[in-house]
Specification:
- The chain has 18 helices and eleven strands.
- It is of the alpha+beta class and 434 residues long.
- It starts with 6 loop residues before the first helix and ends with a helix.
- The structure holds zinc ion.
Length: 434
């Protein structure tokens, strides 16, 4: 992986927050580092308040924005000393944490600070970069992933076991990071979740991320687990009627209309026809926050009823163990692997289906590399359920706004190149039709 840092481009971004915006966008530009709302970045600045008193402020990317397109306004200023005190509490519930983050924000009307804010706060470094890099996940999502990560990085990183993002993860890191860090420490690996780098300087922190990810890439290459080819798979030709039938059945299971996007590229078809697809695809996502877009597992083939009853069983098994009462989301799949259609992504908007497709393209890479390395192993479903039904994750989806009247529906407008037809097409688009 190459650094995309460019001094001439960076010079257009003023000040330490400007450089934070620039290097956050560089992270976002590489889909093998972060996908659609994943990952995060922050910077700590000393600023004076209206009384001339100096205070430390953490600027952390707010929930709901993408690193790739983040603006300075997308970074929320929060009181740093208070956040650090919060992380030292013995316990804090999610609603309390959200409330505290909200009340310690220094700009009225700013977006909600990320659920990973406390993690950024407890690290002493000025710049903190966090990604869900494919290469690091490929190494860590294996049966002996922790050992591999330790062998690969030595004391360059502090290794943190999987803990759900939020207060518990930050509190654990606040205790463990100072205990485990050495003079060589430049990052932290969050097993089955992602990787963090940090430094006093924006470029250094970003380039340390690139270095850590490159080390994982070279490690995979060395073990012949970097480019994993699938046998060539020829597409049988697009089966329009069958795709339409599938879309109808999935929409019925969801209880609302969903769009479907079929991709029969050799990679998707090859994976859908993989002799071990049932085992490889039914482990879980590459990193837990994908679940809000993709649901925990893809449907294999086209049996929507089987998928839905499997999903209901998964909900029943796991909701019993939850602290609060949970309400089941719709039981329809968001993706299917089919030997003829390839990857079929479902979503309420064309953008949503694109996100699902992107995520699964990267998931396939992570699965195949981990498998070549020593066996793909996803997080167990209890952890995935906790994220899927975590109110703070669902809030990311709600932040997308109200669902327009024709979401999930397809409008066919004849004569749409000009005049009334064009106006109709635009009106349908505004109301959410594809
Ligand atoms: Zn994360």
């Amino acid at each position: 992986m190459k650094s995309l840092w460019n001094d001439a481009e960076a010079a257009k971004f003023a000040g330490p927050l400007g450089l934070r915006v620039y290097s956050a966008r560089l992270l976002g530009r590489d889909r093998s580092l972060v996908l659609h709302g994943g990952g995060n970045a922050s910077v700590k600045l000393a600023e004076k308040n209206l009384f001339g008193e100096e205070r430390e402020v953490l600027y952390v990317k707010g929930s709901g924005s993408d690193l790739e397109s983040v603006e300075a306004e997308g970074f929320v200023p929060v009181r740093l000393d208070y956040l650090r005190r919060l992380a030292s509490l013995p316990a804090l519930s999610d609603p309390q944490m959200v409330n505290e983050l909200g009340t310690q924000t220094l700009l009225a009307g700013a977006p909600a600070p990320s659920v990973e804010t406390l993690l950024h706060a407890i690290l002493p470094h000025r710049y903190v970069d966090h990604t869900h890099a494919d290469a690091v996940l490929s190494v860590s999502n294996t049966p002996d992933g922790e050992k591999r990560i330790r062998d690969l990085y030595g004391d360059k990183v502090v290794v943190i076991p999987y803990i759900m993002a939020g207060f518990d993860l930050a509190a654990y890191c606040a205790r463990e990071f100072p205990r485990q860090r050495t003079r060589s420490t430049v990052g932290m690996v969050l097993l089955s979740h992602g990787v963090v780098s940090f430094a006093a300087d924006a470029r250094e922190s970003y380039e340390l991320m690139i270095e850590l990810v490159s080390m994982a890439e070279r490690y995979l290459e060395g073990k012949k687990a970097w480019s994993v080819d699938l046998p060539p798979a020829a597409a049988p030709g697009f089966k329009r009627l069958e795709a339409a039938r599938l879309r109808s059945e999935v929409s019925r299971a969801a209880g609302f209309p969903l769009l479907c996007r079929c991709n029969d590229s050799p990679r998707f078809l090859g994976f859908a026809r993989h002799p071990e697809v049932a085992r490889l695809s039914q482990g879980g996502p590459a990193t837990p926050d994908h679940v809000i877009w993709t649901k925990p597992l893809p449907m294999l083939g086209r049996n929507v009823n089987d998928f839905s009853s499997g999903y209901k069983n998964y909900f029943d098994r796991n909701s019993k163990k939850a602290k609060e009462q949970k309400t089941m989301l719709d039981p329809a799949p968001r993706m299917a692997l089919d030997p003829e259609l390839g990857l079929v992504a479902f979503g309420r908007t064309a953008r949503d289906t694109g996100i699902v497709e992107d995520i699964y393209a990267h998931t396939i890479d992570v699965i195949l590399r981990a498998e070549a390395l020593g066996g793909w192993r996803a997080l167990d479903e209890g952890h995935i359920f906790d994220i899927e039904y975590w109110d703070l994750e669902q809030a990311k989806l709600r932040a997308a706004g109200a669902i327009p009247a024709f979401a999930g529906e397809v409008a066919l407008v004849t004569g749409a190149a000009s005049g009334i037809g064009k106006a109709c097409a635009e009106a349908f688009l505004r109301r959410g039709a594809a």
